[in-house]
Amino acid sequence: xxxxxxxxxxxxCLGINHYLxxxxxxxxxxxxxEKASHIYLVLSGVLIVxxxxxxxYGVARRYLFNSPEPYSYEISTMFLLFSFVFAISAVGRLxxxxxxxxxxxxxxxRAQHVILNSIAPIMGLFFAxxxxxxxxxxxxxxxxIGEVSTSPRIAYY
Length: 157
Prior knowledge:
The protein is an all-alpha fold. The protein is about 70% helix and about 0% strand. The longest helix has about 35 residues, at about 25-65. The chain starts with 14 loop residues before the first helix and ends in a 12-residue tail after the last helix.
């Protein structure tokens, strides 16, 4: 078992990697996860670039040519959501997520470790469950009333 001083920026001593090191079979799984998160990070960047061009096209068409088109806003919104979802795995893997540490910064190192690696992920999981639950409710409601997009006529559910 590996024993090391806790470093909040060292992603090797956080979360599941620590337990896989104990079992001794982390190298293959680690490489697969790293490769997948890198691919998703690149895909997220590509979506952001496409989103920039789409939004610019929509603005130019609306204000320069006085001919608004409804697609650019919806496509940009969808790409923004997808780019967030794709990038979050790489950000979490590299431990580069934003932390508000005005409280935890004044605590002992061990208390910071417990809060940032135990309590915060549980709260995040609870938030994700609530977000999913409400999203499913809204999707069911959209399906029941037959709500569709105004531009490409894509169903919202």
